[in-house]
Design brief:
This protein is mostly helical. Helices cover about 75% and strands about 5% of the residues. It is built from 17 helices and three strands.
């Protein structure tokens, strides 16, 4: 998301100055003109102090916080609490300062006469295009209660998946970091201490021992350089994978990793099917629904493919045929179910079934991965530790044999 500073006039001639976040300058123009504003100037304001980038991770709204907000909003809507009162209540209950400020501004915009979707659209860094379009569709169809419930359920499922994946990775990450620390201490401090003993004995050293001794000497003498290079590499990779190109590359790599790639594809297909199903059910045209769903999938690769599919539908092609032409991204089952939906006029229902099927597949795969990670990791780390200690014990054994 890019941030722009705008100067505009309302229909009554009142001057307005403010900021808006959007994916592009053109999108920002569309949002402002959609709010009946006459734009006088629109400039990028993305240049921020360096310390703002360091504080950015602490100034964001997490998926879990957005889910809690959506769940509370859904409950208030089901309880027939007026929209203004609901937003005021949510503002008082919310602890995250970024989300709290956003809710305050949304409530102010709604009180000023803007629709809820228009108010949410101003905060694109928090509410995705999918979120905004779902609310806009609900406003047109008069189904805001049902839609807010769906959004809450949808985000809750996303949070559950995210939490399970993170929990599955915590133990492996801890063990790997611990091994790296132990190996670093051994190579940097232990190996240089025993090197003189091996040199004085004149014994033939195994290749792995020689390599680790050389690495140990280098690290002990140039530790500051090693730390600086690690910090620079971490900084470069972090910034690169935040860029459009980096995220696209990461998406492609994840899709090609054995087992993990299959899991990620099923997550993306489940998101696509569920989002498209609800949008179609809400009266959004199929082509537009698919394009919007591309922004909620979470993959640039899938977003590009879904954009092509959307263009193909506008050109008069069937969705099932277009899906069948992309077997790498969509399994044959998806195109077959969609073909049935197109022929029976129940496309939204069949897509909902596809989503339910792949949701079960994802949960099953996650269970299997969680069970397999620990023994596989123990075997790998055990092998590396054995290699590390063998590089020390073998020369000592050979040295003892020579006496």
């Amino acid at each position: 998301m890019a941030k722009f500073k705008y100067t505009a006039r309302t229909q009554d001639g009142e001057l307005q100055v403010g900021f808006i976040e959007s994916v592009s300058k053109e999108a920002a123009v569309n949002i402002l003109t959609g709010h009946s504003l006459y734009i006088l100037s629109l400039e990028s304001s993305d240049k921020t102090p360096w310390y703002e980038n360091l504080l950015a991770p602490f100034k964001r709204v997490t998926l879990k916080e957005l889910m809690i907000f959506s769940r509370q909003f859904s409950v208030l809507m089901e309880s027939k609490v007026p929209l203004n009162n609901s937003l005021e209540s949510l503002h008082q209950q919310t602890k995250n300062p970024v989300l709290k400020e956003a809710i305050y501004q949304i409530a102010a915009d709604v009180n000023a006469g803007l629709s809820l979707s228009q108010s949410l659209e101003k905060h694109g860094n928090i509410f995705s295009e999918f979120y905004v379009n779902m609310v806009r569709t609900a406003e047109v169809s008069g189904r805001l209660e049902e839609t807010t419930l769906f959004i809450a359920n949808y985000l809750e499922k996303e949070v559950t998946w995210q939490s399970r994946i993170k929990n599955a990775l915590i133990y492996p990450a801890f063990v790997i970091v611990l091994f790296i620390i132990v190996a670093g201490i051994m190579i940097s401090f232990v190996f240089p201490q025993i090197r003189p003993i091996f040199e004085e004995s004149g014994a033939q050293l195994p290749f792995i021992t020689t390599v680790l001794l050389e690495i140990g000497d280098f690290v002990s003498n140039w530790w500051w350089f090693v730390l600086a290079m690690i910090a620079m590499l971490a900084f470069f990779l972090t910034n690169y994978f935040k860029s459009q190109e980096g995220r696209a590359l990461l998406n492609e790599v994840l899709l090609k990793v054995p087992v993990l790639g299959d899991l990620v594809k099923k997550i993306y297909v489940a998101r696509f099917a569920e989002s498209t199903s609800v949008l179609i059910k809400g009266g959004v045209p199929v082509a537009q629904s698919i394009e919007i769903a591309g922004h909620s999938v979470g993959s640039l690769a899938y977003a590009d493919v879904l954009r092509k599919l959307s263009d193909g539908i506008r050109a008069g092609e069937f969705l099932s045929k277009l899906l069948a032409s992309e077997p790498y991204y969509f399994p044959p089952l998806v195109s077959q179910m969609v073909a049935i939906g197109e022929s029976t006029g129940r496309l939204d229902e069949l897509l909902s079934r596809v989503s339910a099927f792949y949701t079960r597949e994802v949960n099953s795969l996650l269970d299997n991965l969680i069970e397999l990670i620990q023994p596989i990791l123990i075997a790998i780390i055990g092998g590396l530790i054995a290699l590390l200690f063998a590089s020390i014990l073998l020369p000592i054994f050979n040295l003892a044999q020579s006496f």
